[in-house]
Amino acid sequence: MRLEPVEAPTLARRLGYPAAALAATVVVAALLAAVAGGNPAAVLGQIVDGAVGTKFARLETLNRATPLIFTGLAVAVAFRAKLWNIGAEAQLYLGAVATVLIGTQSGLPGPLVIPAMAAGAVIAGAAMLLGPTLLKTKLGVDEVVTTLLLNFVVLLFVGYLLEGPMKDPMGMGWPKSPSLPKEARLPRIVEGLRLHWGFGLALICALGVWLVQAKTTLGFEMRAVGLNARAARFAGMPVNAVLAKTALISGGLAALAGFSEVAGLKGNLTADISPGFGYTGIVVAMLALLNPLGVVVSALFVAGIFVGADSMSRSAGVPSYIADILLATALLFMVLALMLSRFRVVRG
Amino acid sequence: MAEILRQESAAILRGESTAILRLDGITKRFGPVLANDGIGFALAEGEVLALLGENGAGKTTLMNILFGHYVADEGTVHVAGQELPPGQPGAALAAGVGMVHQHFTLAENLTVLDNVALGTRPLFSLSSGRRAARARLRQLSEDFGLAVDPSARVADLSVGERQRVEILKALYRDARVLILDEPTAVLTPQEVDALFATIRKAVAKGLAVVFISHKLGEVMAVADRVVILRRGAKVAEMRTAETDRHRLAEAMVGAEIVPPEVPPATPGEVLFRLDQVSVAGSPGLRDASLALRAGTITGIAGVSGNGQRALADLLSGLAFPESGAVELKGSALADWSPRQAVAQGIARIPEDRHATGTIADFDLTENAMLEDYARPPMSRKGWLDWGRARKRAEAIIEGYDVRCPGPSVPIRLLSGGNMQKLILGRVLEAGPAIILANQPTRGLDIGAVTYVHRQLLAARERGAAVLLISEDLDELRALSDVIHAIHDGELSPAFARGEITVKELGLWMAGQGGRHAA
Lengths: 348, 518
Hints:
heterodimer; A: 348 residues; mainly alpha; two-stranded antiparallel ribbon; 73% helix; 2% strand; globular; B: 518 residues; alpha/beta; Rossmann fold; 7-stranded mixed beta sheet; 6-stranded mixed beta sheet; 18 helices; 34% helix
């Protein structure tokens, strides 16, 4: 068996396979639900219901999608330029640390403190990714290894901060940071509803990334470097500088996830503020084919599965781990579908 | 002898004599492309058959089917009356088919002897049989005039020597059919002569040789019979004794070819000068001196890998000299980068249009603006003007006859010739003063080759200084007003048009110029 490229895939081919992938995911989910002892139709229904069935559920899904949009964008931007940023998790945590430090220590007046926190987070996350990127461009060190391993370094560092210098003296011994003052908290989008402006910022960022990629010279350079760095260099593009700029944008976006979680949702920093948002961001970006506007959709989809599965597990007694399996299945089927929409399988 | 041969091949053609090799109705599709369309021919012992056709005519596909690398959709291959099972190179080898690929398949860190004997000895054996292998290799070397040291490491050999090792490898396995895929592309003229002598010795001993080429002169010189392929189909079969270059060319291209006329040059001032310049690399460039004058074409002849890349990189802005003086339009090089080279009005046609010249998944609009996207009118203050970019791409498509469905198709869907035309349009539109054309016609069909030649001549007429790096001596001798040979990073002195023979040029290309040449 061989693969032959389809030169000009039809619309039916490009949409049909991804749709089939989603259908296959649902089938696998139903089988798993049955294996776990639930009624497949009921389980699937409860996942959907738990994700979008009530106003509370919908807001919860939007809240859960917010950090995923940021990390998904961070990954999408970097992967587009073939900068393999596996370290969104670390960048998220450093962004959260910077947010808490500025929010609790700076003493800035009310209207200035939130922009300062966001800026601090962006700088921290950008710097976090710039290091591995410079190692890559100057010395040829593989950024997959450095960014991945630095996740653990940063997580342990945050653990140390929360047990030491940043520990909340009023925290009754829990490893958590002091809470942000009220003026350092992101306001709700609609008063009384549990949805903060982090979500709005995420949408603005998605639009901004799309604009940069589609309309600016920097976006053109990032895409060119990602597709063929050699041709980009020959044409006169400053390849290393483009990668460095990409790193700053990507790291900054991932850090905004930390900023948004701390300032919008939690109000303080704990070591478990991210249940792997940085890694899930890779799934989100891949499902969106690295398209920044698609990231919003796929983040909502992924968040919906998580929220829906949590809710389902409470009522149906099927473990919420089914969400992880569902996502992994969706991703694998989607990758396969994308390949099949561009190639056809030929015998011989 | 020749008479016997002729009768034999005539008998083969009539189907009366058994052929050592017979292909019947070979058909192969790659997606929508019909690479081979019902091709068949036969070959007798002691015969040289040339497979002639332009790039993309289906020669290499056909030979890959014969050798078992590809499986044909239809058709059969017989060697000495036995049908070969499809898709098994091992069976082809065992039946006595030996292939020398365009790109050699040698283990660089092994010796010549090890390479030749590789895979011919049983996996477990008490005696390694090296002594016998060495003696046999020596004998073959002598019999076929393939001088090469059995204990030399392949990595240390020249390209010509490596080709000899490949041929020895096939002979060592008792090949009865020897397939040579574009064997002269990497050789100096002297090495080509030696190869032809080897081919003649081989057929005298009863081997059959398939000689794949797109060069008419070589086909006429070495082959008994010619099978001509065009667009995947066999269009003609002729005996070389009964035809001439002209008729071969017509059959190959399907139309008469009119080479462009080269009017006398009107040399102007020196626009680019190298004085004792060295560039790092292996081989890099060593103490090279060169002057590109306005209104002339300067040719660089050489076997690939002799420093052409360093020279091209220097002019492209990718490399900076280690020592020596580079003068661009009268002033020394200061800040030097690809972008700087573009800004200085150097048009760069890169050697590899797929990997360096274009971005495969970008569309034509994006590829057309690769070099000047950062300047007005393509962009302002960092914002791209897609409307203008598209208009410019359309202008290039129109002005340079790029055959394509439109400016928004990915460039990977274009043929090599059309890709090259887009690159020509991109770099020539602004009327550059200096043009670097690095292997500008490699892999193109004759129509596209002629187009590229005309464009370069038009630029020369306009007063541009052209540096033409090529492995095609016919092309170089036709176009160049001044010619240098390059060997191991060293440039020969400049020779004016008609001042040097092919033989002398070949000696310079082999690094023996000025010694043997009178």
